[in-house]
């Protein structure tokens, strides 16, 4: 069609300027021109239900956020070495959402930058370099984050100071939770001992509280708490990466680490914080900020400038004012019940994962093996039917459903309806033979 031809031409131009390797979703990529709430509109005028994007936390082109950005941009934007009340006010608002011991914030422009800074703070505090991470993690695109990643495609060799931990998962391990827990904590203790024996020591544990990139794993109760205690016991710091799990996403907690009842030393943030405006940060204790700040001149030109602060404050006001965390809890419950039913009727779905407005369906083939192929076909089929989702996990077989937080019951109906139909469509014999 003409539309496909136009999209192909744009894709060719894109490749000619930024190269062919910058990833795009879908066999026939989506060419978007506008967004509103939970909807994205394509160049050919089709509305897609967005059940994938967490960056537009309070909705695409949220008018409150747009106005805040525009008004501040029209008044003043400047680097961060002048006093500005809006910046201070946003910091105060943000810190008020954290436990009392987390009382200082460094602003950054991205999640990568936040994690990089947190690692630096931990390294200087402990004098150690050793890092505990999860197997199949993704924390960003800098050198130190690439050399600790065992997940998405990275050519950087795994650092000698990095120990990836297998995260136990009660949904796929038939043994008792006690056995699973004890074994996983023993492995963590061994990893710590190995870092110490190699002379690296323990600088930090860096983890995503919802284990999202890892495939939305569900560790046994007490695992994260036990792990944090081991790390603290070895003199290391605990860093919770809330880039995906924060700002009420999980429904039951405003920050994901609260689900595990732990006290992290550092919390890193990004993606949803500015609703698409580049804004991230590191929240930490007064003591750690003082120690780092007094021995380094940490300067960040753009991070937390007046416009970014206006964006962040508007997102926070919308999130709190519209009680989006409670909404995610409520809708997440409905979604879970419906997804459990959908899974029970279909042998191709092995487990329903996630919490709040972040869920996953683990797909298997007819022999019960992880099926990336089936997951890819469901994602493509959903796209053809006007709903955007994706897939994650080391086997790429977990459907990733993580809509903007302004998703409502009527949108959930559409999503579930298309999901059921798409799952059925890809398991029909002719589709399998394709
Ligand atoms: N941490 C996590 C858990 C992420 O998912 C991502 C991005 N996918 C990052 C960090 C990196 O954030 P950014 O792309 O803003 O640098």
UniProtKB/TrEMBL annotation:
The name under which this protein is listed is: Aminotransferase class III-fold pyridoxal phosphate-dependent enzyme
| UniProt key word Transferase | yes
Q: Name one GO molecular function term.
A: transaminase activity
Which CDD domains did the record assign?
A: OAT_like (cd00610)
Whether Lipid metabolism counts among this entry's keywords is no
Which species expresses this protein natively?
Klenkia sesuvii
Pfam families (UniProt xref): Aminotran_3
The source's superkingdom equals: Bacteria
The record, for InterPro entries, names: Aminotrans_3, Aminotrans_3_PPA_site, PyrdxlP-dep_Trfase, PyrdxlP-dep_Trfase_major, PyrdxlP-dep_Trfase_small
Q: What is the lineage of its organism?
A: Bacteria, Bacillati, Actinomycetota, Actinomycetes, Geodermatophilales
Query: What family classification does the UniProt entry report for this protein?
Result: Belongs to the class-III pyridoxal-phosphate-dependent aminotransferase family.
Q: Which UniProt keywords apply?
A: Aminotransferase, Pyridoxal phosphate, Transferase
